[in-house]
């Protein structure tokens, strides 16, 4: 699988329609085709390596603008993209988890020099930062255990990813992406819609995001040290799903960029910040789970288990901190009306 | 040791001079004598049980108003009071630690019904709060271990306290308290000082408190989730010492109550809140240490050790939360000028 002539002609991916000149008579499907062709072209150019962001952007566009697309075809491709993204994402997830847990453990166990800068007061105290587990006998073993288990997980995920990239299923997906570049399958009659028809689709994503956030206990998250971390963590799932909704809304605004102009800049930046916060939530929750799993390893020493308990709690604190950050940042975006007012549709 | 006639004549302790009518010509030493006589009288009346607050209040007054008192005598009595308070406080400290750790552990391990109330959103979710360690196999063992160790510590502290209360040293202290009721040893020439001379003594305590707080990293504490809990807890000692300074200032304002009138009400209430926050800091730090110590018990299972690691981290989070609460509340008191402006001296 190498670059195709079509793919090399496509504009660089990930920029929405920002560079494309548009007038109001442009059909919505032409604008959407250009966006998807750019993304799919990027995907094909980079083969055999796969950019997970591209998979996510294509999947998001297929979801957001489904009203313009052949429904069965777009549904099927979305499912394939989600499956592939999940599969290829595992290796990276293990790397993130390992890096996060080792960083946490090193910070918990080692004395380092960051303490001086972080200390306030007129006379900087010349003490060193020292974690709670400094010189703890279980720390080196816990570190080795986490490293071994997560490296093994990453290797397995790597093997699975390589197998996937050589499979007929992946080749079929690449063929569909080629179709996306050249001949986007549309819903009958969709060609008549003007470019402004993209906007209500983006509004629907924003509305779904707002509804999902309203179902969350934000007022609890906004209070620091609410005890959610350990005593009542609740379900991580609604927070994790939120990230997908935030990204879909962000990508939808990017696709509608030429229609919205500078009005889209601030909400897009705010959404991007929220997505980063939610990625931290996901990473910390996954790392906490990995620490808890490692503690179930047979025949570890009590000291190792103790250290893993502290590491687990530390990552759950990061989860709570991420929820607090989201809960503190969201009301500004919500009050701004960027996502719920009618300005998206009233050009 | 039973009630003395003198003691029964003394007004109830712990109220400063609030009830005593004063004019400006009253000697400071007479006001101070009345205060100390009331506290010492309370101490003697309650024998053989000892109220630790009374010990602390007498010790604080001896410190704050030392300029009016026989220095060697008051220094010696203060040291005896501090020693006795430390000794008798151990039993109560073990009880607090045990209660705190069991409450934490039960909350971490049990499902309970508080979740429904704490959940926001239009439709209250009918889920139950569930701690991170719910159904963890190490939880019952960790609970039993903590209960055993801390109950043992409390029993030992109880024995030590009983021995102390029967000792010649304690009888000598009670004799000194009797002297406090009847014949306060004054510094030569102190009788000439008018009652207003109490105020600069209180100001000196407030100034010492402000200096101590300025040396703390309050701007770090004011940021929630700064990572102080586990990664850079620093030294608990300056925070613990702060509690003594807060209480001394609060007690000094109470003694000066009749001179200050309602102006003392708000700072006294603010100081009382801060003292409670710092007591939480102390309790959580001590409980964290007890969990860490329990984890060093030989031959515990890894599951038990893991649970103790989570409990340790949980208590350190409480320490961080207390620092955050203090750091958030202090600036209001500081900006109010109650403690540093000259109003305390400008009647």
TrEMBL record, chains A, B:
Residues 1-22 are annotated as: Disordered. Residues 21-335 form the CHAD domain. It comes from the Bacteria. Gene3D superfamilies: CHAD domain. InterPro entries: CHAD_dom, CHAD_dom_sf. This is CHAD domain-containing protein. It comes from Streptacidiphilus cavernicola.
């Amino acid at each position: 699988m190498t670059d195709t002539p079509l793919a090399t002609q496509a504009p660089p991916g990930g920029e929405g329609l920002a560079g494309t000149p548009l007038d109001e008579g442009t059909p919505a499907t032409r604008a959407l085709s250009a966006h998807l062709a750019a993304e799919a072209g990027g995907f094909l150019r980079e083969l055999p390596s796969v950019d997970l962001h591209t998979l996510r952007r294509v999947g998001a566009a297929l979801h957001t603008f489904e009203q313009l697309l052949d429904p069965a075809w777009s549904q099927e491709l979305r499912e394939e993209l989600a499956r592939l993204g999940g599969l290829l994402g595992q290796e990276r997830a293990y790397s993130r988890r390992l890096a996060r847990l080792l960083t946490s453990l090193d910070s918990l166990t080692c004395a380092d020099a960051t303490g001086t800068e972080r200390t306030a007061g007129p006379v900087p105290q010349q003490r060193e930062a020292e974690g709670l587990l400094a010189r703890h006998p279980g720390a080196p073993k816990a570190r080795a255990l986490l490293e071994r288990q997560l490296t093994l997980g990453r290797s397995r995920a790597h093997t699975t990813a390589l197998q996937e990239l050589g499979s007929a299923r992946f080749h079929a997906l690449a063929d569909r992406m080629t179709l996306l570049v050249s001949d986007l399958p549309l819903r009958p009659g969709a060609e008549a819609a003007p470019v402004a028809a993209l906007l209500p689709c983006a509004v629907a994503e924003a509305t779904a995001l707002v509804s999902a956030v309203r179902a969350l206990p934000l007022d609890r998250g906004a209070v620091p040290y609410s005890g959610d971390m350990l005593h009542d963590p609740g379900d991580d799932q609604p927070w994790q799903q939120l990230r997908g909704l935030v990204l879909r809304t962000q990508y939808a605004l990017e696709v509608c960029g030429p229609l919205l102009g500078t009005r889209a800049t601030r909400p897009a930046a705010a959404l991007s910040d929220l997505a980063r916060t939610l990625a931290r939530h996901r990473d910390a929750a996954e790392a906490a789970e990995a620490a808890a799993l490692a503690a179930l390893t047979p025949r570890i020493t009590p000291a190792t288990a103790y250290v893993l308990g502290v590491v687990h709690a530390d990552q759950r604190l990061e989860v709570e901190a991420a929820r607090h950050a989201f809960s503190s940042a969201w009301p500004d975006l919500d009050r701004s009306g960027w996502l719920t007012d009618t300005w998206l549709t009233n050009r």
